[in-house]
């Protein structure tokens, strides 16, 4: 099943998990302590976040630590930034085309 | 929260550019002001031979296969990458008031013009004042909904704005 970054962040618990582990890598138990939900439910969310490649796991001794995949999170911000960039470029290109056309008319 | 990401720029020829986003309305606003008369700017948006000169951000080029600028007509065009890859899209004109306003529905498509939905609704307004022409564009984009969910989630959940998180992520990625 293909998952994307937007599916990962559609759920409020997953968004909360992302903000938690943005600050430091955490074990599933430590993450679950922040929620009024079962450990199973938190594991399910962590699995989805991992499948979306938003979160990575690292084994340290007997514990698994979850941390954020920074690059993936940046995709969302890029989405709007790219659209702005495209129009900035169009704007300056159109500005040049208009000056050329104005000169031709004279 | 309204009209954030507001950026104004002045180009060499004294033209103006402004880009803002209203996430609650899933709408992007683009305002441009050119030191050119209305008729010329209108042509630049409605004639394929001029559109193709500026519509694709370099190094891409714009290629209009056909364009019928009338209500119910459409423009079928591609953004051609430096490696020759073509990204096709269709604009269907839904309303035209000459030299004042036109609206279209925009969607990506394959090379045979099969649409990839959802698309976006575009509304373009033109106005001349003192020899300068202002173009105001609003783009209503269904896919902003996904972004909106994310932003609201961060705000409501942890009192953290999207901007704060972005800064945090930027700082973390430098580590």
Could you give a quick summary of the protein structure above?
The complex is a heterodimer of chains A (106) and B (175). With 106 residues, chain A is mainly alpha-helical.
SSE layout and pairing:
The complex is a heterodimer of chains A (106) and B (175).
Chain A: H1 5-8, H2 12-23, H3 28-32, H4 39-51, E1 55-60, E2 63-68, H5 70-105
Antiparallel strand pairs in A: 1-2
Chain B: E1 4-10, E2 16-22, E3 27-34, H1 38-46, H2 48-54, E4 61-67, E5 74-80, E6 86-97, E7 101-109, E8 115-129, E9 132-141, H3 144-158, H4 162-174
Antiparallel strand pairs in B: 1-2, 2-3, 3-9, 4-5, 5-6, 6-7, 7-8, 8-9
Helix pairs in contact in B: 1-2
Could you walk me through the main structural features you see in this protein, from its secondary elements to its overall organization?
The complex is a heterodimer of chains A (106) and B (175). Chain A has helices spanning 5-8, 12-23, 28-32, 39-51, 70-105; strands at 55-60, 63-68. Chain A is mainly α and 106 residues long. In chain A, a hairpin with a 2-residue loop joins strand 1 (55-60) and strand 2. Chain A starts with a helix and ends with a helix. Chain B has four helices and nine strands, in the order βββααββββββαα. Chain B is globular. By secondary structure, chain B is an alpha+beta fold. Chain B is 25% helix and 47% strand. Chain B has a nine-stranded antiparallel β-sheet. At the A-B interface, helix 2 and helix 5 of A face strand 1, strand 2, strand 3, helix 1 and helix 2 of B.
